[in-house]
Amino acid sequence: MTFTLALRNVFRHKTRSIITLSTVAFGCVALIFVGGFFEDTFYKMREGYIRSYAGHLQVFKQGFLEKGAAKPFDYLIDNPGEIITLIQGIEAVQYVTRRIEFAGLISTGENSTSCIGQGIEPKNERSVRQSDVEKQFQSRGDLSLLVGNVIETGDPLKEDEGFAVLLGRGLASSLGAQVGDGLILVSHTIGGSINAVDVSLKGTFYTSTKDFDDHFLRLPLAGAQKLLHTDSVQSLVILLKKTEDTARVKAELRHLFQEKGLALELRDWEEINDFYTKTRALFGRFFLILKLVVAIIAILGIFNTMNMAVLERTAEIGTLMALGTKQKGVAALFLMEGGILGALGGGIGIIAGIGITRLIASIGIPMPPPPGATMRWVSEPMIVPWTILFAFALSMAASLLSSFYPAYKASRLEIAQALRYAG
Asked: Among 22, 168, 246, 403, which residue has the least CB neighbours within 10 Å?
């Protein structure tokens, strides 16, 4: 009976109720859309970094993380094959690739610049041509953020091309080097002597990180090992089938390494990518501010509606109390009206928010490169279940909170005074 009466009262003044419902619904739509936009941004940023550089997990010889920056060649992994076999026994692992990095000089004969060389296994380092990325971008895809290398000019590396190199496009630009040019790559061997090799420029690449493209070159692992006079590697990079498995696989590998007595240490992509962690925290604060704004707007809108209802229905409240309705019953009636407004507004907002978010995701929002990056991308806002639940919970909480004072005010009216108010 109370619910039926409350529902009738909500739509007694249709225009006012529609405005209030629209306010609550708009707040829910904003939360669902912005939450989905942020989540898509985080996803593309995370996956782009994982696939272009870090992998999900990296394995190093024990002590490398503490002292490897000063003496990188003192902490090389001597038996990578056995460790790779061990790691690949975990079902969640997609593949494991070997890498070795070194500081050096790259020269055209006329121009020279410092660089960081990265010996890689081309078969495990995903590469696509820029033309394919542009086609995917035009069709609202995000391929450019989800591959290791985008080949801007030239061709990808092959396993048997020991002394061919790919230059980051910033590095190639600073050298003035063109595809097909002969270059000289100079570095220290692991024994400390200087070694130089002639290499050919196979192509230029770019990734999601501009700083990486300005300083790095890549060459097949066999060529890097010959330059450095070693058969060892510096790290093993692990790519998983799902990013969500990172913490579980990391714990499993730690246990496995301890069990086998291997002097190895692990670092996951979040520990490597400090920029992602800080960016997510920053966006989280932005989203918190949006939540507060939406909550305040909803509270003020419903409070105004409920307060006006108390003023307009003073005589009615007096009649209800004269007929035996207790103060708790009057308060419950107004709280229920506020709850109905919150539930209806939240429900409408969720339906509209999901529909609008999916529509925009199907169209895509072309975005400029983020700070420190070089790639355009297309935002495709996601439907995030926890954001939907939060939006509805916020609409309910705001409606009940804003209805509390009007309900309390109505329940405290004196019967005689309320009846006199009717005239």
From this structure: 22
Instruction: Estimate to the nearest angstrom the gap between the alpha carbon of 105 and the chain centroid.
Output: 35
Distance (Å, rounded) from C-alpha 358 to C-alpha 408? 41
**Other C-beta atoms within 10 Å of 58: how many?**
21
* Helix, strand or coil, per DSSP, at residue 404: helix
Tell me what the mean pLDDT of segment 135-142 comes to: 50
Q: Residue 358's CB: how many other CB atoms inside 10 A? A: 15
Stated pTM of the model: 0.76
Question: Looking at the DSSP assignment, which residues form a beta bridge with residue 164?
Answer: 200
- Name the nearest CA neighbour of 397 among 357, 345, 354, 350: 345
Closest by Cα among 207, 170, 204, 205 to 49: 207
pLDDT at 217 over 80: yes
- Mapped onto helix, strand or coil, the DSSP state of residue 123 is helix
User: Which tens digits make up the pLDDT trace of 180-190?
Assistant: 899 999 999 99
What single DSSP character describes residue 54?
I
Closest CA relative to residue 376, chosen from 205, 134, 212:
134
- Tokens at residue 251, please? 């714990």
Q: Is the dihedral of CA 178, 180, 183, 185 positive or negative?
A: positive
**C-alpha distances out from residue 405 to 10, 87, 271, Å:** 17, 62, 49
Alpha-carbon gap, residue 412 to 407, rounded angstroms: 9
Nearest residue to 349 (alpha-carbon basis) of 303, 403, 391, 386: 391
Looking at residue 325, what DSSP letter applies?
Answer: -
The larger pLDDT score, comparing residue 390 to residue 402, is at 390
Taken as a whole, the chain contains a residue count of 423
Contact 32, 387 (CB under 8 A): yes
Beta bridge partners of 237: 58, 97
